[in-house]
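1st attempt posting a full record on here, be nice pls
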Amino acid sequence: MACVLCMGMVGGAFAYFSDTETSTGNTFTAGTLNAAPGSIYVSGETGYYPPYQSPVMNVTPGSDGVNGCVVFSDIKPGDSGIIYWSLKNDGTIPGSLDLEITRLADVDNGFTEPEDMSDGTKNGQDATIDGDLDDYMHIRLEVDLNNDGDYDDAGELLQNGTGMGELETYLPVVGTAYEKLSDVTMNPGDAIKFKFAWRIDPDIPGVDDNIIQGDSFQLDLLFELLQVAD
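the predicted structure (as tokens):
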């Protein structure tokens, strides 16, 4: 008996369950980091003034991308005042705030006769090579880091050599080593308040008060808000 075994291949198609989903509309949006000036107002010896001016202080408020400034005019021995303002992280991601203080443009602006005679000699000068207002104008710069409104906690007085909580301590613009405010985290929507107090003694010790007549100087505050590294 013969037995024949035949083997072969049979072609065919086999189907399995399947499903396809499509993800569309994926977008990537960069966050924003924006330091925006907030409220600002001034006060002086006789109380609070309208938001942007006093008898000796004229405020140009800052806005988004626009620097604000304060112009002091006709200040004299015995004058004083305070400027309050705030800075806000108006973006969508956290930032780290730095502040540096720079003194610029110290000039005499000519001499009146009383200023000329302040050194005892009428000779067209006052015995100094530049302006003197920054030598005899005293300031203190404070920041309310914990937002409690009192500016007297550790690290909130931005001047060396004064100690925490010495509320009546003012330092001359010249010769003061200012603390640099650095690495202060500001989350989106956070605002930090600042206080700048100034005064000129009613009787400048050791010199003729006339030595500051007509003098001027510029003080710049540079705020920088940097992205917080992950």
